[in-house]
Amino acid sequence: MRSILAFILFCTLSLNVFSQNTDLDILKSINSGENKNWDKTMKLTSDGVYPFMALSAGGVWLAGYINKDQNMMRNGYKTAIAIGFNIALTEGIKYSVRRKRPFQEYPDEIVMRTKADGFSFPSGHTSSAFATATALTLSTKKWYVAVPAYAYAGLVAYSRLRLGVHYPSDVLGGIIVGIGCSMLTWQVDKWVNKK
């Protein structure tokens, strides 16, 4: 657990390394140029996060139910709890930090390619994708589940930049929050059940 907390602390402190100029420069390089097909793909990738969350939690539980595996069914519940915890924490941070979205802050430099409201930090789509990928990985402990789940989560993170609705530091914050929420959910379950 100490290593998890040290990792989260390290990642949080590394957010300070990003100056606003670096953050904006990276975003502009990803957001620039027009490619309608790629942008449509990125919007579909972002929009797929919410079905991914629901199908993942339900799928883990259903796999446990079909195989009469109580532990896997419990993992389905933990996946749902981790996702819910992630959403609550992400929204709480957003309303505490109240960072404007990049297309609002720099309307002449950043192209908004999808609708987005609320605040920017951390990226809710990214945190949800990484919370779900981490929960799936912890549930199954299978590389062939972890690799595509994290690849999809990484693509979601990229899509938020391409679509102009988040800074790189928002995405990094979302990754930390998402992974942290799932890992903490699993750790609390171990403490409660003394495993």
Describe this structure in words.
The protein is an all-alpha fold and 195 residues long. The chain has one domain: Vanadium-containing Chloroperoxidase, domain 2. It is built from nine helices and no strands. The mean pLDDT is 87.
Identify the notable features of this structure and list them briefly.
195 residues, mainly alpha, Vanadium-containing Chloroperoxidase, domain 2, 77% helix, globular
State the gist of this model:
The chain has 195 residues and is mostly helical. The protein has helices at residues 2-14, 20-31, 36-47, 49-66, 70-97, 102-105, 124-140, 143-162, 168-193.
Task: Draw up the topology in text.
Elements: H1 2-14, H2 20-31, H3 36-47, H4 49-66, H5 70-97, H6 102-105, H7 124-140, H8 143-162, H9 168-193
Rg measurement, Å: 17 Å
Helix/strand/pairing category? mainly alpha
* CATH structural fold name: Vanadium-containing Chloroperoxidase, domain 2
Strand content: under 5%
* Biggest pleated sheet: none
Parts with pLDDT < 50 across at least 5 consecutive residues: none
Strands, total number: 0
- CATH domain class name: Mainly Alpha
Residue-averaged pLDDT: 87
Distinct helical segment count? 9
CATH architecture: Orthogonal Bundle
Termini separation comes to 14 Å
What is the number of domains? Answer: 1
Query: Helix content range of the residues, please?
Result: over 70%
